């Protein structure tokens, strides 16, 4: 048995390690949670790592998963071993090619981090619905249940694919296995090479397409032979299992494992047996161990490895003859089917067999629903009943169809000497990264077994993260969340008011609280529920002010390293000096690319974390704390005024429960009103996340009332208010105001911040143009009255906008219909969306591509799009990633079709009224005529719709109209369509430049009146920062580990070639007025429009952070990195050049601009100074070429005859 190397990795890296060895070409495309596999392969290739063929893997990122699959098809048909990595919708996009690949028996391998398919909603989390959708393609399917198996089964998969020349899917649970970190054993490359059947590879290459021995694949066949030819593969599939089994035996011989097609685990005389595949098998094994040791029942598990082909005889042989009942667990749902897929296969295996066991089946774990030993115990208890439920669900409360099995008993199956820890953090505070280092330090430098798993909410940076870590002498088989912790850490002080973090902490456990409070302050501020639980559970409390330490060191909000050091001091997993030495080593490695200064700061943070930890004595009196109101009860909702009953029901019955991290307890009945995926808008205003320690404070005497602070605010938390003297007199506090300037000089003026919603990005402070800043960042502890001021001002009756909303200052007196989203602090995308809603929000239809903007735009229960006092606001939907343009186009066509019908019905009505001698007055006729003439015009559409509605209802009230009441009613049934809908198709560059480009191009080519807003972050932001065709030359990103080699795609110039599409490129921080003009002109243009908005992103790693996002946009234009223009085809009607270059000739320092962002400055850590200068020069050259093309276009009509500029009459 070979001595194997030990590595601490997650499931994705484990699978990638095996895949790299056997892969020659990898066609890749990012999708969560599989993207890290592709990124590892790309990094290793760029680093020069060789596969078993002594080459680096040729890695190519495609425009979509469909494109990646086609690359595999072409590569394999030409004789090379090809691999990809995917999940969910990505796998579905590959299915057409997969049928072809399987039909041609090509040894292609897909590694799938199995993930939910979007149905009523999108979820990035794990189940088997994607794999099950692909089970008919002809690919073999091999399942893994753990990080170790992800490696071992990946090896078996590649070996089997090569040997049998058949395509395989190797799959494991998305997130639960793909992102779980464990220490595993791997084989050497020499060993892997020795396992490969070289004759099989030679035969595969001999069959490849070559002009030296020409052959045809992909013919067209008619019905006379297709059926017979399709059946010719039967023998190949019948022997495939033997090949897989043989390869498993080779691995077993090397590793000491006992992998089988179907592995049995449990009592040899078991009467109750579960059949399952994936990570749940680890939970079942652990539960069986616990229960069998207690002698409670004779229990067993059959773990399915090879799911396709599904070998009936092998399954039956694995099950003890003593088995009376089988329970089959499926991690998918097939609505309308009698049973789920695995259960159907098991039933088929026993069909007609004598003494077959009773077979029941159920669903579990959809979208990574946590399934624990308590659920497995509930299942075994159900199986023990004389007549168990034939269908069931686990880990939910189904109070509608009553399929669920309730948890009736809690069992702790954790092995002795296992330490369980839970870390509550905030996205972007570094908690997750620190814990990944922690687990590697312990895994790589001790004899302890380790496990780490990370949970995230759907918000971007600033959202909740939970890190679950376990360490123990024995192997850890617990693929579920920590529910009985020895240690709990809280990185955000405000969490004690929101979450019951002590609920899962053991008696006598340790609680580390990062807080600005002193020990004396705890008595005053700590919620009574926390005090009582700390005392009753005899918890050891530790306090540290990591905020202060990080700020003093220069790390700003990054408290992770301080808290990581404090953990090691408390947990004593390693001796303190040794732990500090390892921390120093890993910090130097982790932050090397960010420079010596960052490394030094983190080293100082480690020392401070060890030195500044304060143990707190728990007063005995806390045992008797009185829980006497909302201020003392953790997570008690801050009840507010709701706009309607629907909103109240949703907030009280769902949102507030979810926001306390108790959503798992919600029953099925709670979602009956929302079964179609429909949710009320505007719920973020009730959330009040309180994630900021500082917020802007307004200084009235310094303010020039420009409203630019509100214009650029990414979260709509800062707004101008106009206040009457009467309203000011009734204010709950002495409101500081300024006298309003013209044309609103009858009002008092105030800039107000919602401090409880602020993310402390400080973009407003940096943008403020006043000679003396009118905004300064201040501690929230010094502004406790601000939430009350915000609530009061927000409750005042809305004022009519005293200015034009199409100018910067005036636009901010309009209500934003997009507020308090979960986007990153300082996000470069959201200011554009917010302003767009201020212009058109009360008449908007939005189709949003999957990506950052869909996640922060619709992360239940936080819906930031909202309604006004009239109940109007943006209607929003998301279909998929790739089809956003087509989906939005369909929405537009629906409105257009109904409006055309209304026009026809109005003509019929006029004739009908004439026939009844009910002649319309001139004013009445004018109302109908105006509506018909301007039904496609946005300006004034609400007023025209209201007039038409009133007219029809008044006419219907006339007794003579009774004869044509049906016609009136038919028209009025369409009154929702009287308003011209402003259709906006919104998405990022990954959608517009890559996966959705074909659809976008076609929709724009139709000439129809749709608007497209592309939020160009120049990277796939939502999936972790992969390169797109919008990524510029030299930028380092995932899938471009060495820096992007090619120039950025010029989407705007390509679309301009149509000649009839409005196109604009904007950057708010560079020119706010141009941004507004472009958005307004795009909407006014009666045809398709495309607006491309430069959007700085956290993935750019801007020095100083996203507080400078607006400044970065300005510098990008000044340096010539980004350019502003508008192409308006309507200008041709006036004899003018349709193209206007709005940015001046670049004069900024291009290299300095690039080096201000980590995605470019990291080049200096990878290449020589000469090579870096060459890359910068190349990037500058590409940018200059773009500018020159725009300059030529701005002058190309100067010498054209005037009559050429006018369209034909």
Automatic annotation (TrEMBL):
Catalytic activities: 2 oxidized [2Fe-2S]-[ferredoxin] + pyruvate + CoA = 2 reduced [2Fe-2S]-[ferredoxin] + acetyl-CoA + CO2 + H(+)
All copies of domain 4Fe-4S ferredoxin-type, residue ranges: 694-723, 749-780
Annotated positions binding [4Fe-4S] cluster 2: 713, 758, 761, 764
Annotated PROSITE patterns: 4FE4S_FER_1, 4FE4S_FER_2
Cofactor section: [4Fe-4S] cluster
InterPro entries in the record: 4Fe4S_Fe-S-bd, 4Fe4S_Fe_S_CS, PFOR_II, Pyruvate:ferred/Flavod_OxRd, Pyrv-flavodox_OxR_EKR_sf, Pyrv-flavodox_OxRtase_EKR, Pyrv/ketoisovalerate_OxRed_cat, Pyrv_Fd/Flavodoxin_OxRdtase_N
Swiss-Prot/TrEMBL keywords: 4Fe-4S, Electron transport, Iron, Iron-sulfur, Metal-binding, Oxidoreductase, Pyruvate, Transport
GO molecular function: 4 iron, 4 sulfur cluster binding; iron ion binding; pyruvate synthase activity; thiamine pyrophosphate binding
Positions with a binding annotation for pyruvate: 32, 115
Iron as UniProt keyword: yes
Site location (Important for catalytic activity): 32, 65, 115, 1022
Gene Ontology terms describing biological process: electron transport chain; response to oxidative stress
Superkingdom, taxonomy of origin: Bacteria
Binding annotation for thiamine diphosphate: 65, 829, 852, 988-991, 1017-1022
Family statement drawn from the similarity comment of this UniProt entry: Belongs to the pyruvate:ferredoxin/flavodoxin oxidoreductase family.
Name of the protein in its database record: Pyruvate:ferredoxin oxidoreductase
Natural source organism: Amygdalobacter nucleatus
């Amino acid at each position: 048995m070979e001595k194997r190397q030990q590595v601490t990795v997650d499931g994705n890296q484990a699978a990638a390690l095996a895949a790299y060895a056997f892969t020659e070409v990898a066609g890749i495309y990012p999708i969560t949670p599989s993207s890290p596999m592709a990124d590892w392969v790309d990094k290793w290739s760029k680093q020069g790592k060789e596969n078993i063929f002594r080459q680096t893997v040729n890695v190519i990122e495609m425009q979509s998963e469909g494109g990646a699959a086609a690359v595999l098809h072409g590569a394999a048909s030409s004789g090379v071993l090809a691999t990809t990595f995917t999940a969910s919708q990505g796998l579905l996009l590959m299915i057409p090619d997969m049928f072809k690949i399987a039909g041609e028996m090509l040894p292609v391998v897909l590694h799938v981090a199995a993930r939910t398919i979007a149905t009523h909603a999108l979820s990035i989390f794990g189940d088997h619905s994607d794999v099950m959708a692909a089970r008919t393609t002809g690919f073999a399917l091999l399942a893994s249940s753990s990080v170790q198996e992800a490696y071992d089964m990946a090896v078996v998969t590649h070996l089997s694919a090569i040997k049998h020349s058949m395509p395989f899917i190797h799959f494991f649970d998305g997130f639960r296995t793909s992102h779980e970190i464990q220490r595993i054993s791997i084989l050497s490359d020499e060993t892997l090479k020795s396992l490969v059947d070289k004759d099989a590879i030679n035969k595969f290459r001999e069959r490849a397409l070559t002009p030296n021995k020409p052959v045809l694949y992909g013919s067209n066949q008619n019905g006379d032979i297709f059926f017979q030819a399709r059946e010719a593969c039967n023998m190949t599939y019948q022997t495939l299992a033997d090949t897989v089994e043989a390869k498993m035996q080779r691995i077993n011989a090397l590793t000491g494992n006992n992998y089988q097609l179907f592995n049995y685990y449990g009592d040899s005389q078991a009467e109750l047996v579960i059949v399952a595949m994936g990570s749940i098998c680890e939970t079942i094994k652990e539960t069986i161990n616990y229960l069998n040791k207690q002698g409670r029942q004779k229990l067993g598990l059959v773990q399915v490895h090879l799911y396709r082909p599904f070998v009936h005889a092998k399954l039956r042989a694995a099950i003890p003859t003593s088995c009376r009942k089988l329970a089959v667990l499926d991690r998918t749902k097939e609505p309308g089917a009698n049973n789920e897929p695995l259960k159907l296969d098991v039933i088929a295996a026993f069909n007609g067999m004598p003494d077959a066991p009773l077979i029941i089946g159920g669903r579990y774990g959809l979208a990574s629903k946590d399934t624990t030993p308590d659920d497995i115990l509930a299942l075994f208890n159900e199986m023990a009943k004389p007549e168990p439920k034939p269908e069931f669900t686990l880990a939910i409360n189904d109070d509608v169809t009553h399929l669920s099995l309730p948890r009736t008993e809690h069992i702790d199956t954790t092995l002795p000497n296992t330490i369980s820890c839970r870390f509550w953090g905030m996205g972007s505070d570094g908690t997750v990264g620190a814990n990944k280092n922690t687990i590697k330090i312990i895994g790589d430098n001790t004899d302890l077994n380790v496990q780490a798993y990370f949970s995230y909410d759907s918000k971007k940076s600033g959202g909740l993260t939970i890190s679950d870590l376990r360490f123990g002498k024995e192997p850890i088989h617990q693929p579920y969340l920590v529910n009985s912790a020895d240690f709990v850490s809280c990185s955000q002080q405000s969490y004690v008011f929101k979450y019951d973090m002590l609920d899962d902490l053991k008696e006598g456990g340790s609680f580390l609280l990062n807080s600005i409070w002193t020990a004396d302050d705890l008595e005053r501020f700590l919620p009574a529920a926390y005090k009582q639980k700390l005392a009753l559970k005899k918890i050891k409390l530790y306090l540290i002010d990591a905020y202060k330490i990080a700020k003093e060191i220069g790390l700003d909000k990054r408290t992770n390293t301080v808290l990581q050091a404090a953990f090691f001091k408390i947990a004593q997993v390693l001796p303190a000096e040794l732990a500090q030495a390892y921390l120093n080593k890993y910090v130097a490695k982790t932050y090397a690319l960010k420079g010596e200064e960052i490394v030094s700061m983190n080293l100082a943070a480690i020392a401070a974390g060890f030195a500044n930890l304060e143990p707190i004595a728990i007063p005995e009196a806390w045992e008797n704390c009185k829980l006497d109101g909302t201020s003392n009860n953790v997570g008690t909702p801050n009840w507010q005024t709701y706009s309607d009953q629907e909103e109240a029901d949703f907030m009280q019955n769902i949102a507030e429960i979810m926001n306390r991290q108790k959503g798992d307890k919600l029953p099925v009945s709670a979602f009956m009103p929302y079964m179609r995926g429909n949710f009320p808008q505007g719920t973020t205003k009730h959330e009040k996340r309180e994630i900021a320690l500082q917020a802007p404070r307004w200084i009235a005497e310094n303010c020039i009332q420009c409203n630019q602070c509100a214009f650029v605010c990414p979260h709509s938390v800062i707004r101008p208010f106009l206040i009457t003297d009467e309203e000011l007199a009734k204010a709950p506090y002495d409101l500081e105001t300024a006298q309003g300037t013209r044309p609103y000089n009858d009002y008092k003026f105030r800039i107000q911040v919602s401090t409880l919603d602020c993310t402390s990005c400080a973009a407003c402070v940096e943008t403020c143009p006043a000679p003396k800043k009118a905004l300064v960042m201040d501690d929230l502890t010094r502004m406790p009255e601000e939430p009350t001021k915000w609530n009061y001002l927000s409750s005042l009756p809305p004022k009519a906008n005293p200015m034009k909303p199409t100018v910067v200052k005036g636009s901010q007196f309009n209500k934003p219909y997009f507020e308090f989203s979960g986007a990153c602090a300082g996000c470069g995308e959201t200011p554009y969306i917010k302003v767009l809603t201020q212009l058109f929000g009360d008449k908007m239809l939005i189709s949003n591509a999957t990506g950052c903007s869909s996640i922060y735009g619709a992360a239940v229960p936080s819906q930031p799009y909202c309604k006004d006092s009239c109940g109007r606001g943006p209607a929003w939907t998301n279909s998929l990633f790739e089809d956003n343009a087509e989906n939005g186009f369909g929405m537009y066509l629906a409105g257009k079709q109904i409006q055309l019908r209304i026009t026809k019905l109005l003509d019929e009505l006029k004739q009908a009224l004439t026939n009844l001698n009910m002649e319309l007055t001139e004013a009445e006729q004018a109302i109908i005529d105006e509506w018909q003439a301007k039904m496609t015009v946005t300006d004034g559409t609400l007023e025209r719709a209201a007039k038409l509605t009133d007219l029809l209802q008044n006419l219907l009230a006339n007794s003579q109209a009774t004869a044509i009441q049906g016609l009136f009613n038919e028209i009025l049934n369409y009154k929702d369509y009287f308003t011209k809908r402003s259709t906006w198709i919104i998405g990022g560059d990954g959608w517009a430049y890559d996966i959705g480009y074909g659809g976008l191009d076609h929709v724009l080519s139709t000439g129809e009146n749709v608007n497209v807003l592309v939020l160009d972050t120049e990277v796939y932001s939502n999936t972790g920062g992969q390169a797109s065709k919008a990524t510029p030359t030299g930028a380092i990103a995932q899938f471009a580990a060495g820096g992007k080699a090619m120039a950025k795609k010029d989407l705007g110039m390509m679309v301009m070639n149509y000649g009839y599409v409005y196109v604009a490129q904007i950057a708010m921080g560079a020119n706010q007025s141009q941004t507004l003009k472009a958005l307004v002109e795009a909407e006014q243009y009666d045809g398709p429009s495309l607006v491309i908005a430069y959007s700085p992103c956290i993935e750019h790693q801007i020095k100083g952070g996203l507080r400078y996002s607006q400044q970065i946009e300005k510098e990008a234009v000044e340096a010539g990195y980004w350019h502003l223009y508008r192409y308006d085809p309507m200008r041709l009607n006036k004899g003018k050049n349709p193209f206007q270059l709005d940015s001046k000739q670049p004069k900024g320092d291009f290299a300095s601009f690039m080096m201000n962002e980590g995605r470019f400055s990291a080049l200096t850590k990878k290449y020589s100074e000469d090579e870096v200068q060459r890359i910068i020069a190349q990037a500058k050259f590409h940018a200059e070429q773009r500018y020159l093309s725009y300059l030529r276009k701005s002058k190309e009509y100067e010498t054209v005859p005037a009559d050429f500029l006018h369209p034909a009459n």
